[in-house]
Structures are given as C-alpha cells and as structure tokens.
C-alpha cells in the first residue's frame, strides 16, 4: 500500500460505517517503518468535551479537579507510532485548531504546564461524514482537512464491491470456525448469490456479524441461505426483501436457481424458465455457465 511507504504522511480514510476504515489504518501502520511502535486508536466522538484537551495533550498533576497524577496524552503516547483518529469529523471545532497546530509543529503542551514536549507521530484520520459539507456548515476546519488528506483513501460500501463478498465470507467463516472450535463449513453457491443481492447497510461489519451468528446456529457442515435468513428476518431491508433491478444479474441468478431446482437437466430447466432449450443454451454461453454431467456449474 502506497501510504505505508511514507512514515510521516497524514492519511484521511473516508467511507460508510462498517466499511473497515480502522482495518485499513492498521494495515498502513503495520506495513510501515513504524510497525514496531504503538498504534493508538482513538474514537474522537467517545470522549466528553470537558476531557478532550486533557486526553489528547495530557495534563500535570493538580492542574484541575481529578488530576491526581501526571498523565501523557494521546500525542505523547503515540511517539514513534501512529495516532488513529476515528470519527474525526465529530471533534469540536475549538479543539480542531489545537490538533492542527500539534500536527504541524509536532510539539504539544500538557494542560497545566508551559514547557512544550516534542513528539514524533503519524496521523491517520477517518470519518463516515461528508467533510466538504461540514466545512460549508462551518463545523470542520478547511486547513485541518488540508493537513489530514495528503493521502485520501475512500472505501466504497460493500454493495458497490460485491466481488469482495465471497472472499470475505470465506475468511470470516474460517476465522469463526477456528474461534468456535468447529470445522470450517462449506458454503453453497446459492448462498453466495443470495448474499450478493443484499444491500448490506452495515457493510463489512454486518457481514462479519452475520457469519459469526450463522456459524453459532448452524447444525450442518455447510452454510445455506436459511442460516442467514435468521439474521435478517426482522429487518425491513433483508436479503429476501431487497429488490435488485439489474436485469442481467437477475437473469443469471434465475438460471442458476432453475438449474439447481431441476438437477441440472437442461430441458426441464428451460421449461421451468419458460424458454426453449436453445434459448437456455445461448444464455448459458452468454454468462459463461458450464454445466457438467456430475451436476455442477461454473460461471
């Protein structure tokens, strides 16, 4: 990854919630020359306003009520490492100016002290908000954006990269099988097709949770559509309720399902689809579906 080659360059990662922004940040860190030092992940929206400055810059003992010991802030803790600022857009506008100065000067001053402290850190920030809109609304500083997005990585939602669903599905199935001390299940092709027609509003995080639950509840050696129905049956945007308007994708999926329904008999499959066998064969060639005598197809 290009961003890993430049140890001091700031990176801004954008994308919807659940797309894996922190995972990308960790990859950048652990493939860089800072990999042997700390990766400090901070959720900017989870810290109360009253403690924000103390948490980021640290404080001196007795500087305020509750400051019973000297404390290093995130910038000091991240010395020689990477400071990952998640949900950066939720940071109060008054703190943004101080964050900008710390990034530019690589020095900070603890609350209650006057002596500056030098620290060497790399900033990777992430957000699921539209930064440009926040700038127009005067909720985010333009100069801070310019400092953060030297390299900008935009992660598309899972529904826009459905080719990633199958490898992610296999990865999560293997991961949770190992954690649950179960054999890695086989995944039916119809299950993969079924999931590809789901919009995944929760993106990769939702898929991961679905696979974990499916493995916990699964009593077979394979994962079928029914193992995922349970996860989405109470949702209005479930796979079975999601409408896919792409004609070619729908035609391809219908042919696959019909082949399975009729045990790969082409005459019966054509009859079920309401077309001639020659028309079915033309469509099989169109989509690169090869039906073997053993009762399988490849696309």
Automatic annotation (TrEMBL):
Which UniProt keywords are present, listed alphabetically? ATP-binding, Nucleotide-binding, Transcription, Transcription regulation
Residues annotated as coiled-coil are none
What residue stretches are annotated with the Sigma-54 factor interaction domain?
A: 1-216
GO terms of biological process kind: regulation of DNA-templated transcription
Keyword Cell membrane, does the record have it?
no
In terms of InterPro entries, this protein maps to: AAA+_ATPase, AAA_lid_NorR, Homeodomain-like_sf, HTH_Fis, P-loop_NTPase, Sigma_54_int, Sigma_54_int_dom_ATP-bd_1, Sigma_54_int_dom_CS
* CDD domains in the record: AAA
Record GO terms (molecular function): ATP binding; sequence-specific DNA binding
Record keywords: Nucleotide-binding included? yes
> Which PANTHER family is this protein grouped with?
TRANSCRIPTIONAL REGULATORY PROTEIN
Name under which the protein is recorded: Two component, sigma54 specific, transcriptional regulator, Fis family
- Organism of origin: Aquipluma nitroreducens
């Amino acid at each position: 990854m290009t961003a890993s080659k430049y140890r001091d360059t700031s990176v801004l990662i954008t994308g919807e919630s659940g797309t894996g922004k922190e995972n990308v940040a960790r990859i950048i860190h652990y493939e860089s020359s800072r990999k042997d030092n700390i990766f400090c992940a901070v959720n900017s929206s989870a810290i109360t306003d009253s403690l924000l400055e103390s948490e980021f810059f640290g404080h001196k003992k007795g500087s305020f009520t509750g400051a019973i010991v000297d404390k290093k802030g995130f910038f000091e803790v991240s010395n020689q490492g990477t400071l990952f600022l998640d949900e950066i857009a939720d940071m109060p506008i008054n703190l943004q100016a101080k964050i900008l100065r710390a990034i530019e000067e690589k020095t900070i001053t603890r609350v209650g002290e006057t002596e500056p402290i030098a620290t060497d850190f790399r900033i990777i920030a992430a957000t699921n908000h539209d930064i440009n809109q926040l700038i127009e609304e005067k909720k985010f500083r333009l100069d801070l954006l310019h400092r953060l997005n030297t390299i900008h990585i935009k992660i598309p939602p899972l529904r826009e990269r459905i080719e990633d669903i199958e490898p992610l599905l296999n990865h999560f199935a293997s991961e949770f099988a190992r954690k649950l001390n179960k054999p890695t299940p086989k995944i039916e092709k119809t299950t993969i097709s079924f999931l590809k027609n789901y919009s995944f509003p929760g993106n990769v995080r939702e898929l991961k949770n679905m696979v974990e639950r499916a493995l916990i509840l699964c009593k077979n050696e394979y994962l079928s559509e029914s193992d995922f129905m349970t996860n989405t049956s109470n949702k209005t945007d479930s796979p079975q309720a999601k409408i896919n308007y792409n004609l070619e994708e729908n035609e391809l999926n219908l042919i696959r399902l019909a082949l399975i329904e009729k045990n790969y008999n082409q005459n019966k499959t054509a009859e079920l689809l309401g077309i001639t066998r020659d028309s079915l064969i033309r469509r099989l060639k169109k989509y690169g579906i090869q039906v073997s005598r053993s009762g399988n197809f490849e696309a």
